[in-house]
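Lab notebook, bench 4. The sequencing result for the construct came back, and we need a structural model before the next group meeting so we can plan mutations. Quick request posted to the team channel:

Model the 3D structure of this chain.
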Amino acid sequence: MRSVHIAIIGAGFSGLGMAIRLKQASIDDFVLVERADDIGGTWRDNSYPGCAVDVQSHLYSYSFAPNPDWSQVYAPNTEIWDYIKRVSAEHDVNRHVLLNTELRGGTWDDAAARWRLSTSNGDIAARFVVSAMGPLSNPSIPDIPGLDRFTGTVFHSARWDHDHDLTGERVGVIGTGSSAAQFVPEIQPRVGRLTLFQRTPHWTFPRMNRRITGLERAAYRRSPALQRLVRARQYYYRELIGTLLQRPRIVEAVARLRLRTQVRDRELRAKLTPDYRIGCKRVIVTDDFHPALTRPNVDVVAEKITEVTPDGVLTSDGVEYELDTLILGTGFEVMPVADPLRGRDGDTLTERWRDGRSAYLGTTVAEFPNYFMLVGPNTATGHTSVLLYAEPQIEYVTQAIQHAARHDVAAVEVRQEAQDVYNADVRARLRDTVWLTGGCDSWYLDEPSGSSVLWPGHTGRFQRALARFDHENYVLRRAQDDVAEP
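Done. Here's the predicted structure in token form:
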């Protein structure tokens, strides 16, 4: 059995950021357990046409590693993946990555105060575990009768079949979320006919993407402070959007006017107009999705799909749409509890969260000593970069590990009462938000607790909450089983 101080599960943006921060803190005894054959997470997996970040590139990057060479305001996926790999190599974390290694299980050894992990490449004993598996890492396959009987080509957008030529084909797309909004305008000009099966219409927000000039990039290289200033401007712009989405009437009026300008056909515009408040679902940042749906070779079908036939899709009005290819733009399983670890009480997180997901600061869970998660419950955002939440968590986890080392603490476990008080406050602040009152059925919501997905408020409040490891809210146990209160 391999023994390490820290095991990080997942080598995407968050996991690699955790590894880099440990390096900066002169902590070198760790591994990253990665099930795929390369690092990069979602930016390795998603390569569909038009795939790009929907937050400005300067904001969607590590604060400690600005990239002066972004080619566009919203960088394409290949640039982001290259950035992740470059920064990881520069900080010498790649040698810690165990590729093609899947976590299969694990238990907490209370006597030894260590996690015993089982992986596809052997067992690992670790003092601390940091789960960085990502909230949107497993594709969601819709439960539609007959999907397995379709005789044409079918694939999920996150598993794009680049060997399959769509030119001239009859292509069906299920879903109208962020991924579909990016790839539909890209494939529409070359397919013969595109039929978009819309489950729910979405509000959209201007993207205003453009190429970053060579002069700008040269200025960023010469003056990093200038790039930090641009990042700060983008940060406050996004925070303003977050504020406006909680007071949605004005923003919604602008969105309606924008839709009217982009879609002149009244019948089509009626199909594309949501019946819920803007912000209730994730707002899609796009300039070309709705215009693409007005093209002569595109049909938008709002009727419910009843089944997939061998030749196409049958809808509730009895119409069968014959297709050559079916693309599932149906998103991801939200916050999958993919790590099958069992805590001190023997339960997995799935079992512990059967009545709703909850964690302290979205980072630690009672009965799971020495276990931390990045981008856990109530850390998602509907308006800005997820890294603004992940980085404070990374710093908090680093401080906790350093605190344990300084005070000879073997086990760190959040107190249940602290977790309960924290989550009661989060739920209270969520109660009057547009996410719960906007009249939509969204992946933001998970009954019965309302939402364990989103953070209710500005990023600054979250960052301040995690600025210091608050050891007073934890049970700290030394190796001899006595409770330490340093």
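The mean pLDDT is 92.
Will bring this to the meeting.
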